[in-house]
Amino acid sequence: xxxxxxxxxxxxxxxxxxxxxxxxxxxxxxxxxxxxxxxxxxxxxxxxxxxxxxxxxxxxxxxxxxxxxxxxxxxxxxxxxxxxxxxxxxxxxxxxxxxxxxxxxxxxxxxxxxxxxxxxxxxxxxxxxxxxxxxxxxxxxxxxxxxxxxxxxxxxxxxxxxxxxxxxxxxxxxxxxxxxxxxxxxxxxxxxxxxxxxxxxxxxxxxxxxxxxxxxxxxxxxxxxxxxxxx
Length: 231
What we know:
single chain; alpha+beta; five-stranded antiparallel beta sheet; 10 helices; 45% helix
């Protein structure tokens, strides 16, 4: 909202491609409207050789109806595009994350990681799956400059990434059952399903609890608490 205000007041004259894409998502623009927004901002809409970052209106409406379920949307390179309030409450508020901080591969191999509990073996397998998935995406979008920059920086910053990347493995990161160590409500074990969006190359990550379990009760409590800290 602050950036929209600056645009309206003429204090922001050269919005970046990322900002225009985010504005288009917030305004829920159609395909032609999104292209027009890029043009009036003096930018060329991303082509087919760039990792898509547009969330179709139908997907957005579906997400609106899943307010009681932790949901996040990632692009094909595992950069977070959108997270609903319950996901933020479960995993930590991502609203302050910028640049590569929003990328799951970066956060898990270079950054602070997250709240999901891993055994040493599960951690290694998780990292390998993420990197293999990213390698698959890089094969589909070899000309994407942001993706190339992400891979180059990961290579420089993480020996583990370099080892996994240089192995040449390709795969897709599958769904799994995860235990989240939440600082207020304690551990919550949830099913994590990754849903694809045909024609958009997006990943929708959905967390659900078995009905009638303590995990379901803790998730319901978390929906009430939100992102506030309870002493």
